[in-house]
Specification:
Keywords: DNA-binding, Transcription, Transcription regulation. With about 300 residues, the chain is of the alpha/beta class. It has three domains: about 80 residues, Orthogonal Bundle (Arc Repressor Mutant, subunit A), CATH 1.10.10.10; about 100 residues, 3-Layer(aba) Sandwich (D-Maltodextrin-Binding Protein, domain 2), CATH 3.40.190; about 100 residues, D-Maltodextrin-Binding Protein, domain 2, CATH 3.40.190.10. Strands 3, 4, 5, 6, 7, 8, 9, 10, 11 and 12 form a ten-stranded mixed sheet that branches. A two-stranded antiparallel sheet has the order 1-2. Helix 8 links the parallel strand 8 and strand 9. The protein starts with a helix and ends in a 10-residue tail after the last helix. The C terminus is likely disordered.
Length: about 300
Amino acid sequence: MDVRALRYFVEVVRQQSFTRAAEQLYVTQPTISKMLRQLEEELDCTLLIREGRKLHLTDTGQAVYQRGLTILQEFKQLETEIGDINELKTGELRLGIPPMVGMQIVGSISAFRQRYPGIELKISEFGGLTVQQAVLSGSLDLALTALPVAEDLTLNTLPLMSHPLCVLVPRTEQWLNRSSIALAELAEHQILIFNEEFSLNRQLMHAFQRSGFTPKIAVRSGQWDFLAAMVQAGMGVAVLPEPICQRLDKQSLLWLPLESDMEWKLGLIWREGSYLSRSAQAWIHCCREFWPGEAPRLSV
C-alpha cells in the first residue's frame, strides 16, 4: 500500500472535498482521484460514496480511515525518529574495548558524550582478539584493539596511538640498578602474561619465538592489576604497556623499558565493506580529532 494514497484518502475524508484536500496537499485534484481509485483497486473494495457534494464512508472505508489515522501517525513518528538518528540526536553505538585500553580513551568518550548526549554508548570489555571477532560477526560496530590485525581479517583500521612496552618487576635490590631489560633475558624468568584472547599475548609469543626461546609461563590472566599483584608477590615478571605501569604502586613495583622494537599500538577497527551507522561515523570522526592520522576521513 502506497502511504501517499492513504494520506490522500484520509485528507479527503477530513476535508469532505477532493478540491480542498488537493489544496491542502499541494497536488492536483485528478492526482488525488487517481490515487484513491488505485487504493480501492488494491483493497478490492469501495471506500467512498458520493451523494451530490457529500462524501460518505462505506463500512470498509470507515475501517481504512480509522486505521489510516493510526498508520499515518506512526509513519510521522518514524520519520521524526529517522531524522533524529540522521542528525545524531539519538542512536546507539556498540563499542568494544580491551580492559587495558579504557583509561586511554576516557577523553574521547567524554567529548563524544558531550557532543552527542542522545547516543547511547554500549561498551563491551574483551581482549583484543575477541573484540576483533565480535566486529567481524556484527555484534559490535567498532572496537579498539592492538595493531596490526591479521592480514586475512576483513577489517578497516585507524591507528590512534602507540606506547613502549616495559618489564614489570618487584622493587627489590636485584632490579634497582637496572635501566632496561633485553627480550632474551626474559628466558631466565617466570613470565606472567595476558591470556590468549589478548593481542599482546600473541605479539609477545611471536617475539619470544623469534628470539629462539620458549618462555616459562607462570600465570595467564585477563586482568592487568592481577598480573601486577602477582609480580609484587614475587611470582615472576610481566610485560605491560608503559601507561599501565604508570598507574601502579611505585613503592613496591618497578618497570624497566623492554629492549625491543615492539610497541603497544592501538587503533580503531570496523568491518570492511559493511554499513556504518551515523553514530559509528561520528565516533570515528571524534577519534580523528583526538589522534589525527592519515586514514580516510568520514564526513559527519
